[in-house]
What we know:
The chain is mostly helical. Helix 3 runs antiparallel to helix 6. It is 42% helix and 9% strand. The strands form two sheets. A two-stranded antiparallel ribbon has the order 1-2.
Amino acid sequence: MAYVVPTFADLRVKYPAFTDTPEATITAYIASAQVDTSWLEADYANAIMAYAAWAMTDAGIGTGGEIAGYVGQGINRLKSGTLDVSFSDAATSATGFATNVYGREYDRLLRKNKGGPRVVRGCVGPVYDGYRNGILPWA
């Protein structure tokens, strides 16, 4: 299987909040995604779509859809009468990719693909000093 860049239709299926977003807009945001073929092939298309959706939401594009979409943005309570909105503490202090559900998904994939070493192993047993031909005192 080869690396395949997702289409605007793929993004609309995965993220229905962008159903009414013009094709050209989605295509432009997909092209600007910061994902290359050094990513795992299984994560490639999902990362592109998550990045594009995060960037569009950050730019105010997309409907946000139903209440589930609002919860993803950090809204705790939404009252309709005389509009009464309450945001979670995490949402008010969020920056970068943490600002919406799409960015958090991209960040999770980013850490999985570019996160660096997961395990660091120290020395086990005596460490020998090549100059004095003895065991180092701190080993």
